[in-house]
Design a protein that fits this description.
453 residues; eleven-stranded mixed sheet; Amidase signature (AS) enzymes; 36% helix; alpha/beta
Length: 453
């Protein structure tokens, strides 16, 4: 398996401008085919990279992300650039007056924003397809177009292909973890309220979160350390993870969901069982957990919340004629138009009850593990747009958990299989520590061969 190098700029093995040159060269070479980016501003990024290098020459301190090229999903504001949200309905959107709060934090830490990445229209879709503006190509199979995962499709592709080492995404029902799973990278779903969403175009305020996609667990931990609101993280320190330490799993109690609710692809099952075996070999205790329903059953009520707020927020575009929305996104939003109020209230009450139930489960286990998706990336030609792949990921959003997806291995066809670690809200360090141990047990970070080319 190809493995990823650490962040070269943060490791002080190259200059900010050299790192930017390499990123821009890869984007120029590969992105015309991959279509991960919707906007690249090399001139702006070069000014910032040169400023950072000048600071080093004058003996000024480096930030934790000094000179690291990053990309930003196009639902997140970047000063001077329109936020178009993957939709023709925002073709005339004005340039953002300032960057989103999370972008400002990353830039203050030394990150260099090279551009904005593609998204599913209004961030509402798990496969990563965009009928109106085009779908990025999953870099793991250049011969047969495959879904990249959504809605943070461009960010997943950009990191997987080695165009940038870090990218921002948003996650409402799996939109960071699904592209992480299908594209074979690390994706962190943060707890609601941990990362400031000012300047972020949300789909559902109650569920939306901002998180990083990265090639290595350590890089995701580094990004989180910069992005998170100070003092809100629980479950351990990020410092050892950022420094590359491999945490011990001895004595950790890992909950294994007994009823997933759907059948797994044979390759996914093989990789998942291999990861469970490595956890036991590392000293973890595997404990079967009963959630009172299958893991997949949490997807439906979460989907209702997405549909209702999606329609309320974007009804003017859903109802306009002629209609500029892609048909699948319009159908999803229309599903929220006619949901009876009692059904919505029932969903909200059930959510609070389920939160109490999951809190009791986490009194007996440190984390809950599952595959991130039931199968590897489907082909664009064969995937079912009306059947969401988020059957395992919506669980974390519905119950306000933190979750990370990382590649656990490859199928016989050479496609990545995502493994998901769920922990209580604000315990991201715990999830990342378990993920780092799984990553190390697999022999290190797994990378798409295109990233190493």
């Amino acid at each position: 398996m190809t493995q990823r190098p650490p962040l070269a700029v943060a490791a002080r093995t190259t200059s900010a401008e050299e790192a930017l040159d390499a990123a821009l060269a890869r984007i120029a070479t590969l992105d015309p085919r991959l279509a991960a980016f919707v906007h690249v501003d090399g001139d702006r990024a070069r000014i910032e990279a040169r400023r950072l290098d000048a600071r080093v020459r004058h003996g000024l301190p480096r930030g934790p992300l000094h000179g690291v090229p990053i990309a930003v999903k196009d639902v997140i504001d970047l000063a001077g650039v329109p936020t178009r949200g993957g939709s023709l309905t925002r073709a005339d959107a004005p340039a953002a007056g300032r960057s989103a709060a999370v972008v400002e934090r990353l830039e203050a830490a030394g990150a260099v924003v090279v551009g904005k990445t593609a998204t599913v229209e209004y961030a509402f879709g798990g496969w990563g397809s965009n009928e109106t503006l085009g779908t990025p190509l999953n870099p793991w199979d250049l011969a047969t177009p495959r879904v990249p995962g959504g809605s943070s499709n461009g960010s997943g592709v950009a990191v997987a292909a080695g165009l940038v080492p870090l990218a921002l995404g948003t996650d409402t029902g799996g939109s960071v973890r699904l592209p992480a799973s299908f594209c074979g990278v690390v994706g962190l779903k943060t707890t609601a309220g941990l990362v400031d969403k000012t300047g972020v175009m949300t789909l559902t305020d109650a569920l939306d979160t901002v998180g990083p996609l990265a090639g290595r667990v350590a890089d995701a931990a580094l990004a989180l350390a910069v992005m998170a609101e100070a003092g809100r993280l629980l479950g351990g320190s990020l410092v050892p993870l950022v420094e590359g330490a491999v945490p011990s799993l001895r004595g950790r109690r890992i909950g294994v969901v007994g009823d997933l609710g759907v059948d797994l692809h044979p390759g996914t099952r093989r990789v998942y069982e291999a990861v469970l075996g490595r956890l036991e070999e590392a000293g973890a205790h595997l404990v079967e957990v009963d959630l009172g329903r299958s893991l997949a059953e949490f997807a439906a009520p979460c989907g209702r919340l997405l549909a209702v707020e999606g329609y309320l927020r974007y009804a003017r575009f859903v109802e306009e004629e002629p209609n500029r929305l892609g048909a699948p996104v319009r159908r999803r939003m229309l599903a929220g138009k006619t949901l009876p109020a009692p059904a919505l209230l029932e969903t909200l009450f059930a959510r609070e009850e389920a939160k109490r139930e999951i809190a009791a489960v986490f009194e007996t286990v440190d984390a809950i593990i599952s595959p991130t998706t039931a199968a590897p990336a489907a082909t664009l030609a064969e995937h079912d747009e009306d059947a969401s792949p988020a059957v395992f990921t919506r669980f974390a959003n519905f119950l306000d958990l933190a979750a990370v997806s990382l590649p656990g291995g490859l199928t016989d066809e050479g496609l990545p299989v995502g493994i998901q670690i769920n922990v209580p809200g604000f315990h991201e360090p715990r999830a990342l520590a378990i993920a780092a141990a799984i990553e190390a047990a697999a022999g290190g970070p797994i990378a798409c061969p295109l990233a190493a080319a």
